[in-house]
């Protein structure tokens, strides 16, 4: 009958409308990642972690999601929970370096200097670009060596190459002073302090 046909047509149309509305309201993984990136740029770390947790629970485990989740946890003071995600993110070549940086930094901040050195050494071997250009990783390696209180000579050798590659870098000079004091070369250390115009407060101990 005409009424039955109209009822069926209306029902079908309603189903199509509901389906379209549902699809329109469902964000893609990339849309949600864009939202996460913006949140993390704005410092909304806890909010970004909620979305990342949902993505991971749904089986989305690509490098960026894992890295941003791990780094987010590190930023809110939960590096222990971040480790698995950052470690897994290293298997993605695009996120290897950033994930290794964060893992090594977390280990360093947790006073696990040997682990920080292992992570940085593994990064040196696995990366495809030039490790020598990675000033941040090289300085962190030196800090970890100095903090062990056992590898001052190794640290000084690495500092010299950093200063050669990055002349005038104040952080490298400061670390050289710490290394010189560690091997009891006090005269050379104080001469370097004078030449570089460093203040005593700039030296201190490594944190």
Explain what you see.
There is one protein chain. This protein is mainly α and 207 residues long. The chain contains 12 helices and no strands. It has helices at residues 2-25, 29-41, 45-57, 63-75, 79-89, 96-109, 113-126, 135-148, 152-165, 170-182, 186-196, 200-203. It is elongated, with a radius of gyration of 26 Å.
Low-confidence stretches: 15-25
Query: What fraction strand?
Result: under 5%
How would you characterize the largest beta sheet?
none
Helix proportion range: over 70%
Number of extended strands: 0
Mean pLDDT: 88
Distance between the termini: 83 Å
Number of helices: 12
Secondary-structure-based class equals mainly alpha
**H and E string:** HHHHHHHHHHHH
Based on CA atoms alone, the radius of gyration comes out at 26 Å
Q: Globular, elongated, flat, extended or rod-shaped: what is the shape?
A: elongated
How would you summarize the topology of this molecule?
Elements: H1 2-25, H2 29-41, H3 45-57, H4 63-75, H5 79-89, H6 96-109, H7 113-126, H8 135-148, H9 152-165, H10 170-182, H11 186-196, H12 200-203
């Amino acid at each position: 009958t005409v009424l039955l046909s109209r009822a069926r047509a209306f029902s079908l149309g309603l189903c199509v409308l509901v389906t379209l509305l549902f699809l329109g309201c469902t964000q893609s993984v990339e849309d949600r990642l864009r939202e996460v990136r913006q949140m993390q740029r704005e410092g909304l770390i806890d909010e970004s972690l909620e979305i990342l947790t949902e993505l991971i629970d749904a089986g989305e485990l690509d490098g960026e999601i894992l890295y941003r989740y791990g780094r987010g946890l590190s930023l809110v003071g939960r590096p222990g929970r971040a480790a698995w995600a950052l470690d897994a993110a290293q298997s993605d070549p695009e996120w290897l370096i950033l994930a290794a940086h964060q893992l090594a930094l977390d280990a360093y901040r947790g006073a696990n200097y040997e682990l920080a050195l292992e992570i940085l050494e593994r990064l040196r071997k696995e990366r495809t670009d030039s490790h020598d250009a990675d000033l941040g990783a090289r300085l962190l390696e030196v800090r970890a060596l100095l903090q062990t209180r056992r590898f001052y000579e190794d640290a000084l050798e690495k500092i010299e190459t950093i200063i050669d590659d990055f002349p005038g870098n104040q952080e490298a000079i400061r670390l050289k002073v710490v290394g010189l004091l560690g091997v009891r070369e006090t005269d050379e250390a104080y001469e370097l302090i004078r030449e570089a115009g460093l203040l005593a407060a700039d030296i201190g101990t490594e944190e």
